[in-house]
Amino acid sequence: MNEQEVIVYTSENSSQCEKLLNQLNQWKIDYKERNVTEHKEYLGDLQEEGIFGTPATFVDEKVVLGAQFNKIKHVLGMSDQYHSYTSFKR
C-alpha cells in the first residue's frame, strides 16, 4: 500500500497501458485509472497539462510518461535508479 496518490491515464487497446497497470498491480500499488477512451473529459485534463499520449502516471505532483517502470519506481520511492521526472501543478 502506498501513501501517495497515483493516477494512471490510460486508453483502450494500448499494450503499454496494459503492461503498466499489470506492473502496478504486481507491486501492489493502489491507483486510480482514468481511461481517456471511455471518458473524453480525462483526455481534456491531459491536454491541459500539455500531454497528448497514454499512459501517463501522476504520482502526487510528478508525472511519468509511458511505461517507464524504473522512473515510476523512483517516484514512488521504490528505487534510486532514476531521478528525472516532470512536476506539474494541478
Topology-level CATH name: Glutaredoxin
Q: What's the alpha carbon Rg, rounded to whole Å?
A: 12 Å
Q: What percent of the residues sit in helical stretches (DSSP H or I)? A: 25-40%
Structural class: alpha+beta
**CATH structural architecture:** 3-Layer(aba) Sandwich
What is the β-strand count? Answer: 5
CATH class designation: Alpha Beta
**Any idea what the CATH superfamily is called?**
Glutaredoxin
Major beta sheet summary: 5 strands, mixed
Description:
With 90 residues, the protein is of the alpha+beta class. The protein has one domain (6-87): Glutaredoxin (3-Layer(aba) Sandwich), CATH 3.40.30.10. The chain is built from three helices and five strands. The protein has a five-stranded mixed beta sheet with strand order 2-1-3-4-5, sandwiched between helices. The chain is globular. The chain starts with 5 loop residues before the first strand and ends with a strand. The model is unreliable at 81-87 (pLDDT under 50).
Which descriptors apply to this entry?
90 residues; alpha+beta; Glutaredoxin; 31% helix; globular
Summarize the structure.
The chain has 3 helices and 5 strands, in the order βαβαββαβ.
